[in-house]
Amino acid sequence: MYAIKYAFLGAIQGLTEFLPVSSSAxxxxxxxxxxxxxxxxxxxxxxxxxxxxxxxxxxxxxIKRLLKGRVLFYLIIATALTAAVVILGDDFFPRLFLxxxxxxxxxxxxxxxxxxxxxxxxxxRASGQLNIGDAISLGIIQGFCVIPGxxxxxxxxxxxxxxxxxxxxxxxxxxxxxxxxVLGAVVFKLNDITxxxxxxxxxxxxxxxxxxxxxxxxxxxxxxVMRQARLHLFGYCCLALALILWRQLR
Length: 250
What we know:
- This protein is mostly helical and 250 residues long.
- The chain has one domain (2-249).
- Helix content is 73%, strand content 0%.
- The chain is built from twelve helices and no strands.
- The chain has helices at residues 2-18, 23-33, 40-58, 60-66, 70-88, 104-116, 132-144, 152-162, 167-188, 190-193, 198-227, 233-249.
- Helix 3 runs antiparallel to helix 9, helix 5 (70-88) packs parallel to helix 7 and helix 7 (132-144) packs antiparallel against helix 8.
- The chain is globular, with a radius of gyration of 17 Å.
- The two termini are 33 Å apart.
């Protein structure tokens, strides 16, 4: 039963981490439905590691080219700002992971932002024209994306599109910036990972591999959607889920 639960959660993580519908929101919902009560934050980190590997493999051909000169400098700035926001909100953000009841409003915000991208799909600035303002904006927004219901990919890509970055550069810069963010989360919570029961490791490993494979699939889908300037369609998915949750809370 554990294997099935973790494999299912791995698939949810892999698909929703990159598709802009908030992986954290879906994990909270399905962990609640499947009664996965223990080590939720640790499981979330391990599943995110699976999708991290998916990003590295998917962008491997671009990493050497993009991580040169100013782009690397901008990633360092974005990472530092993300860390600062997360640390400042460390006493508040973790409480938002406890219940699905907190998800409706952040999902509404994500949905509205994604819908707005419909008018910002013809950016003129490529990777060689990224600037420090792009890095600052992405870094701050990415820090707030630890809140369940806020899609990291959705809001960071949207932020770059709003700043007139072209679609493919926004896609790649957003996911490059996710690599140090996920690694930082793993290091920060390393003590929690060593404290889980030994028998759960093998089940979490199943979730890891499933999140990796489904993550690769989701990246291909999202890049194709962005090239067709249809990112805003995911906004309707977020709004529909927010409405469902809102009605349940009344």
